[in-house]
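S2.1 Query sequence (WG repeat-containing protein)
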Amino acid sequence: MIDLKNCIKVLTLAILLTNANFAFAQKKKKDKKETTIKETIRVDDDEVYEVMEVQEVVNVSDSYNRLSSDKINEDTKWVYSKYRSSDRKYGISKRGKMILPMLFSRQIYNKVSGDNAFCMGIGANYGLYNIDKEIWEIPMMYATLKHLGNDIFLARAKSGYYGLINRSNEVLIPFEWGEISRFEGIDNYYLIHDKKNSLRGVYSLLRDQFVISCEYKSFSKIRNDNLYKVNNNKGYNLITIDNKAGLKNWYQELHTIRDSKNFIVKLNDKMGIIDENENIIVPIEYQNIRVSRYNDGSYLAINKDGKYGCITANGEISLPFEYDFLNTSYSNSLTTRKGDKCGMIQVNNGSPHEIVTCEYDAIIVDKESLIVKKKDKFGILDSYGKLIAPCEYESIEKVLFKNYSSNYIYLAKKDNKYTILDKGSREITAKGYDLITPIVSLDIRNSYYNTVRKCNFLLFKDKAKLGVLDMLGKEVLETKYDDITGEFNNMIIVKNKNKVGIYNLLTKRETTACIYDQIIIDKTGNYGTIGTAIYKLNLADNTKSIKM
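Output structure tokens follow.
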């Protein structure tokens, strides 16, 4: 009895503090009246507590316009702070009166029968609150509570184990399990995970017993066949709900095939394809069959001789097994190899087919074009495998426009002279240069994973001249600076006699003299250094730069 008294005392004080905090947070109208009542709480025949409570009708719109509400029914609303989106707390108002303060997290999906009760909680204390009766049908005694349907609730006890309860808080499945979830496709059956050995089984709620004991590492439904894919220490198999194995063999791997009753399997380290009756569709002799397919239904495979090709789920060969290598990228164009020569096949556009024969020393794959190498010379193919730039260049590099990733050019070197090729591989520079290279853009972050450089301008060198080209190959600046090391917002970092400054390409003048050892361009500010001194730069007027 002493423990019960203490619990009720603590609960009473908590209710008082909660109501006091909530009332304090509301803006009171001057003409609103408060009513003070006395409530008597009887613990037993010997002790009676008298509690004073200030009641006030709370109008949501009066609270500094800080609150919002969502309708539950004609009488009841959810109330919450409109300015707190993360970890939002909810209360409930009924006919203008707050019946629950804004302290609760909620779970409003999978409605209970009558749509009049909600799983709610404070911290890790959840229960089921009935808004019609204004009572807790299930006390706030669970770490989590979720309605699964049919007034059955998944609850996690404070011990960390899961069980099932009904709306009357009666235990349907004891709190002994690491996980419990609905069994797909069948009501009143639940998938149980035994936390102690990490094995899974199936429990029938109506029969009040396991129909499949916890003996499987994984458990998943197969299509609409009432078959289930399972895995234990023997391997993978298909079973029925009464735990009868559907396949004679237990396989190392068992993969479903979309829109088919066939399966990709692995047995004794070899792969093949079987149907649901375990008839062999593709002999189990392949070194590998990739389990993701192309648009036409083909699967990349390696046969018993180590040759690459493609097969369908029905066992048809859709690409001959004659390649020594075929890459597995998710691009529609895949490189192939026969011996030491490379080619290309195209997938996801009809059956896999060869678009480039294996005649090149190397192929650099890109979304819209391919750079190829043959006898130490480079050329370009379009995405269909057509040669659009002959293999006569000493080097070719793709460069993207900084702000337009779908637009690009090629920097090509031929006979020791550099030129620019457009997307169609046409030369767009009026002449060749001793050097053309991208000017680093200082106002973008290049990822480690970027394999193609981005820029707005190009540096050219021709004999004693140094200058700037735009991305269309036009000269926009010829200068006698020693070097150009970076670009941002149409301004370039220039270098003269080992000192750097800034040149504006639009105004065509030097806005910052070449007096600095280093210039730093950053979103937090622009700085120059002279020796150990640091200056905050004014890019428009260097005389207003400030030593820090």
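The longest helix spans residues 2-25. The radius of gyration is 37 Å.
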